[in-house]
Amino acid sequence: xxxDLGCGCLISEYYDEDAxxxxxxxxxxxxxxxxxxxxxxxxxxxxxxxxxGKWDGNICSYKTCMPCANIRRDYYRMMDKLGFDYVTxxxxxxxxxxxxx
Length: 101
What we know:
10% of the residues are buried. This protein has a 3-stranded antiparallel β-sheet with strand order 1-4-5. A two-stranded antiparallel sheet has the order 2-3. The chain is globular and about 45 Å long. By secondary structure, the protein is of the alpha+beta class. The protein starts with 20 loop residues before the first strand and ends with a helix. The chain has a single domain, classed as first zn-finger domain of poly(adp-ribose) polymerase-1, CATH 3.30.1740.
């Protein structure tokens, strides 16, 4: 594994919110692709996650192997359960338990 077991998680679970248009699919590869997160090869016949959209005037497509897509999905589900605020970068727990200054 090229990423030494790290996950880049380049695409937010909320990538559709700021997109002019957005499409997500899980096709079967007709040719080899490179996962945009771990850099591993997505082989012919494997299912992968493909996100295409237009952000800030640029049309982009991201291909992610299913192990990385599942890590990303589970990570964002966990952060949502913890009440993570994506704007402040803090969890609801941190905000509630912080000592007054």
